[in-house]
# Entry
Amino acid sequence: MSRRRSGGLSFYEKKKTITHNQIYQFISWFVLTLGAVLLAWVVVYGWGIKSVVIGDSMSPGLVNGQEILIDRIRYNVLEPKRGDIIVFKPNGNENVHTYVKRVVGVPGDSVQIMNGMLFLNGTAVPDLFSDSIADPGMIAEELTLGTDEYFVMGDNCNSSEDSRTANIGNVRKESIIGRAWFHMAGGNQGLGVIK
# Structure
């Protein structure tokens, strides 16, 4: 006696197979998602930090209350150089606001202020500040920077608390948060590159 197959219900499931195309699509989506997360992390960690300029020590380039974006990645690879505008916490103190100043001396440099003018390695730097420097502070006598020390000053040097004062002193690299990169312009003018 032969059994007949009924055209009714079947309780057996057809075994599903995974194709190479499905594996490729899964890997592609996984790599794309991982890349997007990594890119977002780099952007937020490296350039997503904002700070506010406090005071008029960097005017006319940067003014009180102006927001700036900080490039935190640059100094993981490169060293700060003369002319860079940096954002730092003096002496690494996390309980104070951030300072925004220009690097005028790098490790190994000698700095001194005489007759209202900045001398760098024994040579006058007449074009750095538009005004004569009224207060030489701690560098009335020549000072040589250590291997991890930077000397910073505000562009508006006569209205700036900077490396000339004992409160700030020489800035160590570990106290530097990053380089001031972009500033927020007033109104609807958007971003501007900091020079």
